[in-house]
Amino acid sequence: MKKLFVLAAFLLVSASLMPSNVYAQDAAGGSMFGGFMPLILIFVFFYLFLLRPQQKKAKEHQQLLNALKRDDRIVTAGGIYGTVVGVKENIVEVKIANGVNVQIAKPSISAVISKDEEEAAKVPEIVK
Question: Where are the domains of the chain?
Answer without folding.
Answer: 2-66, 73-113
